[in-house]
Specification:
329 residues; alpha+beta; 11 strands; globular
Length: 329
């Protein structure tokens, strides 16, 4: 493993340790959290001793991409036979197709809005979540959600599927945006292990241009008005991390031609050959300069710039963009 990859993994583990300690301090449900914190501490200890990234069975190096997907990994696939490996590949292919079927309709037009998204997994399955929907018989509101599950791989993709089912079921109940996020948080706490949580932006865009939005630990949502970019920052912790949370709703009004732009950290944390990060400021610069582009073209421009920045370096994290443009009066 090269030094830059190990440094990035150490940073990720330290961040996870800090979040777990905060969660233990603020909640009474500490047994599972303490056990996970001990796993993180042991992984950091293996880094210090030089044993990190070695399979505990065969002592060979675990592939870097597998450690990036799960920094707590302690084993490789050394014990799997050739038929078992082929069966695993088949299962992953099926899981990828199932996950693709959960994605919303592309280029959706509803309630005076046009929406386009891009969803690029770093592996067979993704931990990013993206959704767009309207309630049956209601063309006055468009609901949207974009999130990023902690970790990667199959476990993260299962949490993504859980978020998809929860969000769609809750929207059908006619809840407010705040209730949507509060209940999503409780459902995720009740049904997943504490090692997995999700940053999440969800909201509702109305025909008159009003947007209600909750940001749970996610990157800022960008409101683009004729080149001026305002940020809607996080107003609470990720969902599935802490109980008893109530998330504040933030509001904005968009005129025809204005855009709401959402993205995951697979964009901002992408690195080039010099190990420099793409960063939020570059996203802001791109959407400001090309704000007049249609949603699909704006997404194309952003991803093209990201690829040029990466300069052929491999994609290590899932990348998701969502562009919502107000079209109607």
């Amino acid at each position: 493993m090269n030094a830059s990859t190990q440094a990035a993994l150490r940073q990720q583990l330290n961040g996870r340790r800090d979040r777990l300690r905060l969660a233990i301090e603020t909640t009474g449900e500490v047994e599972d959290l303490t056990r996970l914190l001990q796993e993180v501490d042991r992984a950091l200890g293996r880094m210090d001793s030089g044993d990190y990234g070695q399979c505990e069975i065969c002592r060979e190096d675990v592939a870097d991409e597998n450690l990036v997907a799960n920094p707590l990994l302690r084993y490789c696939l050394c014990e799997l036979s050739a038929p078992q490996l082929r069966a695993l590949e088949t299962d992953l292919g099926l899981a990828s197709r199932i996950q693709a079927a959960l994605l919303p309709m592309q280029d959706l037009r509803a309630a005076g809005w046009e929406a386009h998204y891009r969803y690029r997994s770093a592996g067979p399955v993704s931990g990013d979540y993206c959704d767009l929907l309207t309630r049956d018989g209601d063309d006055g509101e468009l609901f949207f959600a974009l999130g990023d599950v902690s970790g990667k791989g199959i476990a993260a993709s299962l949490v993504m599927a859980h978020l998809n089912a929860s969000f769609r079921s809750l929207v059908a109940l006619g809840l407010s945006v705040q209730e949507l996020l509060d209940r999503t948080n409780r459902l995720l706490l009740d049904s997943t292990i504490p090692s997995h949580y999700a940053t999440l932006v969800c909201g509702r865009a109305r025909r008159g241009g009003e947007v209600e939005l909750c940001n749970a630990g996610h990157l800022p949502a960008l409101v683009v008005r004729r080149g001026r970019v305002d940020r809607i920052e996080s107003a609470g912790p990720p969902v599935g991390m802490l109980g008893g949370q109530s998330y504040d709703v933030q509001r904005a009004r968009l005129e025809p031609g204005d855009t709401l732009f959402l993205f995951t950290d697979g964009v901002t944390e992408a690195r080039n050959g010099d190990e420099a990060e793409y960063g939020v400021e570059r996203v802001v610069s791109i959407v400001s300069e090309y704000h007049a582009h249609k949603p699909r073209d704006l997404a194309d421009t952003c991803l093209s710039d990201l690829e040029a920045f990466r300069s052929g370096k491999r994609q290590h994290d899932d990348v998701t963009l969502m562009v919502l443009r107000r079209t109607g009066p």
